[in-house]
Amino acid sequence: MKRILSILLAAALFCAAILPAYAQLDASVEAQGADPRTADVSMYPTITLVGGSHILYYDEFGPDKRIVYNPDTAGDVVMEYLPKLLEPLRKLDLNGVVDIAKEAMYKIFGETAMDENGESIMDNISSDVYTRNDSNVNSTRVYYSFDFRLDPMENAVKLHDFVEFLKQKRGLDQFNFMATSASGSIMLAYMKLYGYDDIAGLVMNISLHDGISMFEAIGTGDVFLAAEALGKSKFDVSSMNLPIELQPLLRILYESGLMDILSKLTEAVIRTQFDRLYDEIIIPLCFMMPIYWTYVPVDAYEEAKEFLLKGDPKYARLVEKIDRFHYEVAVHAEGILLEADKRCKVAVRAGYGKPSIPVGGTASVQSDGTVETFRASLGATCAPLQEPFLFFYKQKKDDGHNHISPDRFVDASTCLFPDQTWFCYEIPHIWELGYSGWLDWWLASENPTVFGNEEKYPQYTEMAEKGTYVPRKVEPSSPALDFLKAIGLGLLKVWRWLLRLPFFWVKWI
Questions:
Q1: Sign of dihedral through CA atoms 441, 447, 448, 449?
Q2: Is residue 361 part of a domain?
Q3: 122, part of any domain
Q4: Domain membership flag for residue 76
Q5: Residue 437 lies in domain
Q6: Is residue 7 part of a domain?
Q7: pLDDT tens column, 436-467
Q8: Residues 38, 31: Cα–Cα separation, whole Å
Q9: CA distance 498 to 356
Q10: What does residue 464 show for φ and ψ, rounded to 5 degrees?
Q11: What are the beta bridge partners of residue 349?
């Protein structure tokens, strides 16, 4: 009995001696990781999810491997078929125009088409050739590719399998994630299905949280040439060897009001072939792919579903897939990201200064050329395209910081994360990974906000050259000059409105 009491006493004294040390250790670990939003997570690899358009293979790991879709060659196909349009256009044969357009589109997308169930018509298509390669798996920037056509929930399951594979290979329990463009929907589905324990840092990079305007227009049948977006476009057509400078011509046509007339005429022509365009090209090649339903903004989803699928029971399995993502994920996107912000580092990146794809009535807004700024940034207030806020504009939410861009095109105070959202002027839709070192800084920083390093990484930047981003700088303007510019723009708008009136009445009658 005495021996037992002696052992217990010794154990008690031992515990008394070491517990303070353990308590101190626990306290220091707790203090270090008290706020995961400011932790240094640079020791974790970054999994970069590619966007929604990349090479797909048939029999990727077999003897018959070949490319079935390559976005880099799509433009070559378009240029190949453009001359073929001249003959039917000369004869005003619109059916012939659609025939040629259909042939070109099927040459680009035909082998990747999906059936009415949202399943690939052609088996054994994938995009994984590099993903599980040892050099990729062991790198600090892990590239993750996937079959972008699939339902985001299905791709989220595949991503989770890959993360579990990485955990075993790397001996880590967390990773940083960067979701670019369409993969934003997959990242949202991943967090909905599996939570946040795997995530140390999360960058939503020009990603789709709520679709894009072009797919609202196409999905609801509101298809026409957006005159303002086209007139203010900045397409890179240097490789096309055109006989005239296209951009100045487009701007002249727009400012004179002739682009509006051309837009109405184009709409009238499209309407004559509307059923064929949708039934033979748009619906079978695009909207049988579940991923493209995530491109339709939340508010337009039910209208688009009714317009495109018309309640036809043959689409029941497709509807089941797209409904699940829409109602379990898309409508809760902000809530999912707000919860992520409590569990890990979160940053958002968006572009501005370019019109969106010139289709539909909502294309003439600030964007990176594809995703609208207010969508990618989760709520930024944006001035009209190339028309800055007037000198007396005050930011919508006063939080003690300035969130208005130097060119007065964007007010970030209304973003979901105003202090964690970065913007770049006229950036191409797909950004480089490093952002002039921004990512490395953000992963390691204990103050990972737009005010954490304003000298190098302020809220608003611009691209000096490919891969190099610098703070956005604009020459100051006087209030008087701003006011005169606003009057001039107003007069031009009135002129274009007057030109459109006859077309409105003709259409109405």
A1: negative
A2: yes
A3: no
A4: no
A5: 36-54+127-474
A6: no
A7: 789 999 999 999 999 999 999 999 999 887 77
A8: 12
A9: 25
A10: -75, -40
A11: 205, 422
